[in-house]
Task: structure prediction
Amino acid sequence: MTDRFKRVLDKMQEEDLKQIIVTDPIAIYYLIGKKINPGERMLALYLNTDGDRKLVINELFPQEGDLGVDLIWYNDIEDPIEYLAKEIKDYDKIGIDKTWPSGFLLRLQEKFPDKKYVNSSLLIDEVRMIKDNEEIDLMRESSRINDEVMDEVIPWVTKGLTEKQLSDKVKEIYAKHGIEDVSFEPITAYGKGGADPHHETDDSKGKLGDSVVLDIGGFYKGYASDMTRTVFIGEVSDKAREVYEIVKEANLRGIEAAKPGNKMSDVDKACRDYIEEKGYGKYFTHRTGHSIGLEDHEYGDVSSVNDAIIKPGQIFSVEPGIYLMDEGIGVRVEDLVIITEDGNEVINNYTKDLIVVDLDD
Result:
């Protein structure tokens, strides 16, 4: 974890921010390699450019081993802000991350009313956005398992399950593969459900000719997978086939644009321009993708307004879609890409050929 601390400290110096307080449990896990879920109690990692690393933590969360930081303990009848305040240096600014509850922040502001408080979440987010080799290997393995899970899930779309039952089946298959938890609630949507990007899984069942959107992901050793495939029950109409092939080609064009030196918006444009060219632009209603790692959605989206330059080490999704509610056709195809020095590596290897799942006799 030493390199991660160094990258954060280098970023602090770039931003002329000499001290920050990190309170997001995921960001703390990224830096110390230990998950601590404090609930309503305060957990705060204080860092400064002098090299101080202090974790203020409640005694209810005993730790074993060296976490690479000094531990400052408090109990339930003590004010943790008093302990944290002793570590604050006489610099004019303090970086605070965006998730810290206002009750703690206001107490700190009372202690130091003359300091300037700035949002330092972006600093950590930008460091986390560039994955190291260990993270990349874990993401590859997480997606490899996701390919296997998708292969086992697809035959179940013709077993007469409701969307909710199919979602539960996805979780059951993940557990069988040793996945810790789903990285988001599985989207298992038939027909009109899949044609509504905001659809919530319900008790609907699939019928002959339905498109079935399967958007699934799980956590492997803390790292998320995410993939979408769209399949069809029993048969596929000419219109649905046309839509599928357009979305698939848009996905491939987006992947081609995902390379160092291009902008994130270039990836969105590559997908969106092709879908618009084919006459379905108004039916592609969401951004093209999102960054991913310790969380399914991390900082750095793939959208028309994100002109950030793509860099090696980023991992993000490319997931164009077309949604025709009136015709009950919804299609989305999603892959994850690792940005390499000269292009990208797609880490979802499950086929994108159109699949029609035969009905059971």
In short: The two ends are 55 Å apart (CA to CA).
